[in-house]
Amino acid sequence: KWEQIDLAVEGMTCAACANRIEKVLNKQQGIQKATVNLATESASVHYQPSIMDTGDMINRIQKLGYDAKVKE
Ligand code: 9UX
């Protein structure tokens, strides 16, 4: 079972920031596809909740020096 989640990402200041996050997310088990948008400060993630949860995603993003939260 796959789900789609949108995260609000804080702290990205150039296009390479978005690419860094995208690359790391796309390497994770349980993430099929992640796209990060600098202009809208968001990440859209297609993932498998049984393997990857939103807390893991947020931790990965924070390790890179940015912040993220689930969009309401
Ligand atoms: Mo751009 Mo982002 O030089 O961490 S990559 S500011």
UniProtKB/TrEMBL annotation:
Top-level taxon in the UniProt lineage: Bacteria
Localization per record: Cell membrane; Endomembrane system
Residues in HMA domain copies: 3-69
Family listed: Belongs to the cation transport ATPase (P-type) (TC 3.A.3) family. Type IB subfamily.
Protein name per UniProt: Copper-exporting P-type ATPase
Full-protein positions shown: 70 to 141 of 794
